[in-house]
């Protein structure tokens, strides 16, 4: 096997890869609705000669594990799929190829140029919710292996292809894979960070603030009794905390040049029932980042303090103390860059070589301001997790899209990386 | 007939009145769900010897009429009920007894001591959504007539008992009664204003402000791109307008002593889809008051100006101009006090005498900061509309309740007023 033949093999299977990706995007796998996408995935893996493990996550199995996030709603139909490709020779190092099947909500449909699950291609981009984040990555994982097969080869070590749910709100899908016993010498997660390697990622905490008060007919509306408007000073208090946490002296070293790595987002709000009733309730959902090494519990304390402080000096809130509920992400930060063990350096070097062969460039590092499932492998299973995927735009936005030539390059680098890391054996 | 016998007659039917009110409160007649309550009403009227007219409102019939408010949702099942009690002699003045069957939403159930449609009695109060606003009024209208019947009498002029929908969001139910041809020499509406007569009422305009923008993954959240937080400067701009409109020099004479008659209420909000996506949309519903004599169109212009002005100097809003949608109330103010015609003075005097006989007190006037259906009779049908009803608490709030002894007194005054205004004839 030479490297160039691997690139050509990816070219040879690339039409099939695009067709696969297109089909995958057409499954609208928002939270709770991932089953049809997972069925498709399981079928494709079985057809490709993988042993398929498909199971429903049981919260009780994972609730006590480090990295667990409190669960929103129920887990009926929260289904993971793992395909195992066993090596006969086991000469090389084993590998987890991980990707998440869940996609974020589409938002108002009229803000999309075309329906979000159409998976149409325009000018070299495939459009659709999840096209970039991260169904292209799942496709790339699968077709890197297909390319090797096209050459009559397969990895000379066990490879575990994981298609997990819940990446976008808790990470409990990847955690359930750990609980089920899946382990390998390294993990690759092709999240769409534009062909860079993620050196560090922030943590993420989700919380909900609930305000309740005593409503009246609007005819008797006094100032300060409005639960919707009472949220405003809380927004301000939270943004103050955000500012403090982003101060230069508070940053993780890998984020030293990021002026604003930790974003606080008021992502969702709902309140009141009737234009002419003073609203008695308001609920809003917040996402806050934290640096690798920072403690979730400490962040919770700071949030609770900031909210309590703001409530004290506000007529409505002092009478009606806000309730803070944690549901969804309780995710620590993770820095691959801090993993100085040989296995981590070797994995990075192997990926760097593959990347350079495909692109002609050194592999650039990036400290990202989002979280990924990499933390589970890195923090809780001593497994270096390489986050390296294609270029995408408008992820979580409207007209989300992924650059197909970038997908091709990532598939090529991935195939080369697998051949290097795992070695190859005859099919 | 002497006055005291009328009071006793109300006492004699009062147990039945409470039973009727209790049954009526148990029908959860929120908008779109008024049918069972109206069915009950129609049955009771038919049983009481009224000719019953029950019809579905057709928006096309009323859309061109003055006082029409734009409609939220559809009008399937928007049903009015009018019972006509014809006089043989027609010696007196005819009368409309009006009340609305619709109630506002209940809000979060856990904020109610007991379920909102249980209609339980505690310490002389009947509790329940709509108990005060205004099913007690409907009961009082009906049992004032029942009390006369108890004496072997009925009104000596045609009486139209109206049970209308849509009072709480448009007033189109009362408007549809006008369109259907119902007219009388006066109207009585027992809205729960604590046994006072409403001398003037404000107008009400409802509008919705819709914000849309371009969302991104929260990892790339810049400040100012959040559609939820972009609502805050608009709240401020609207409250500025509210302040201007309440300035002493801007007040209607009957509200001269009201420091804050025109309440602007941010009553409902919704925005965003996901804690970790920068929200691309936010919608909020506003209620604003206006004085009698002020024009709806002029108020709309001022609102549009205030919103446009605020948007100009805000990064997000300048790029994503807010949309203003008018749905629901476009209600002018109404002042009975300004109606100097003899018919209005006579109606007021008759009610004043009845009130004084029952309570021993002069009838107090009140300029109210809410609207009622009185405006349709007063402004668009030259009919003096007397708004005079029982004492209630927490209307539009939790644990809404009505004072049953107050309901008794209002029923007594109403019976006396009918006997005076319409005269009586043998059953």
From TrEMBL, chains A, B:
Enzyme class, spelled out: hydrolase
Gene3D superfamilies in the cross-refs: 3.30.70.360, Zn peptidases (3.40.630.10)
Ranges of residues in domain Peptidase M20 dimerisation: 201-313
Keywords recorded for this protein, A-Z: Cobalt, Hydrolase, Metal-binding, Zinc
InterPro entries: ArgE/DapE, Bact_exopeptidase_dim_dom, Peptidase_M20, Peptidase_M20_dimer, Peptidase_M20A, YodQ-like
SUPFAM superfamilies, alphabetized: Bacterial exopeptidase dimerisation domain (SSF55031), Zn-dependent exopeptidases (SSF53187)
Stretch forming the signal peptide: none
A GO term for molecular function: hydrolase activity
Enzyme Commission identifier(s): 3.4.-.-
CDD domains (alphabetical): M20_ArgE_DapE-like (cd03895)
Needed cofactors: Co(2+); Zn(2+)
Domain of life of the source: Bacteria
NCBIfam families: DapE-ArgE, PRK06837.1
Family: Belongs to the peptidase M20A family.
UniProt-listed PANTHER family: ACETYLORNITHINE DEACETYLASE, PEPTIDASE M20 DIMERISATION DOMAIN-CONTAINING PROTEIN
Full protein name: ArgE/DapE family deacylase
């Amino acid at each position: 096997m030479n490297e160039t033949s691997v690139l050509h093999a990816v070219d040879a299977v690339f039409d099939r890869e695009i067709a696969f990706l297109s089909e995958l995007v057409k499954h609208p796998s928002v939270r709770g609705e991932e089953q049809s996408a997972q069925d498709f995935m399981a079928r494709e893996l079985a057809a490709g000669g993988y042993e398929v493990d498909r199971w429903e996550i049981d919260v009780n199995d994972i609730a006590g594990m480090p990295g667990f996030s409190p669960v929103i709603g129920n887990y009926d139909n929260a289904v993971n799929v793992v395909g195992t490709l066993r090596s006969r020779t086991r000469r090389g190092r084993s590998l987890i190829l991980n990707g998440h099947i869940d996609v974020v909500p589409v938002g108002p449909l009229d803000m999309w140029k075309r329906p979000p699950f159409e998976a149409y291609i325009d000018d070299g981009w495939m459009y659709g919710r999840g096209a970039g984040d991260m169904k292209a990555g799942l496709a790339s994982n699968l077709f890197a292996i297909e390319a090797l097969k096209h050459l009559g080869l397969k990895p000379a070590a066990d490879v575990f292809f994981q298609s997990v749910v819940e990446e976008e709100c808790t990470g409990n899908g990847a955690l359930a894979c750990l609980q089920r016993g899946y382990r390998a010498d390294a993990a690759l997660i092709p999240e769409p960070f534009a062909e860079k390697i993620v050196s560090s990622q922030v943590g993420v905490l989700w919380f909900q603030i609930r305000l309740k008060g005593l409503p009246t007919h609007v005819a008797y509306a006094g100032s300060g009794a409005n639960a919707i408007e009472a949220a405003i000073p809380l927004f301000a208090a939270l943004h103050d905390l955000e500012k403090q946490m982003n101060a230069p002296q508070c940053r993780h070293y890998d984020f030293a040049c990021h002026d604003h790595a930790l974003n606080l987002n008021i992502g969702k709000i709902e309140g009141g029932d009737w234009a002419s009733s003073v609203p008695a309730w308001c609920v809003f959902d917040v996402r806050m980042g934290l640096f690798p090494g920072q403690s979730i519990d400490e962040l919770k304390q700071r949030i609770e303090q900031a909210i309590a402080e703001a409530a004290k000096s506000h007529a409505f809130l002092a009478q009606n103390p806000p309730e803070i509920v944690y549901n969804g992400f309780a995710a620590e930060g993770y820095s691959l860059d801090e993993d100085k063990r040989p296995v981590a350096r070797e994995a990075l070097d192997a990926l760097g070589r593959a990347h350079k062969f495909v692109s002609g460039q050194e592999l650039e590092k990036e400290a990202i301001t989002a979280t990924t499932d990499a933390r589970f492998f890195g923090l809780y299973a001593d497994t270096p997790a390489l986050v390296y995927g294609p270029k995408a735009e408008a992820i979580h936005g409207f007209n989300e899209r992924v650059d197909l030539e970038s997908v091709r390059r990532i598939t090529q680098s991935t195939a080369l990386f697998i051949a290097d890391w795992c070695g190859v054996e005859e099919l």
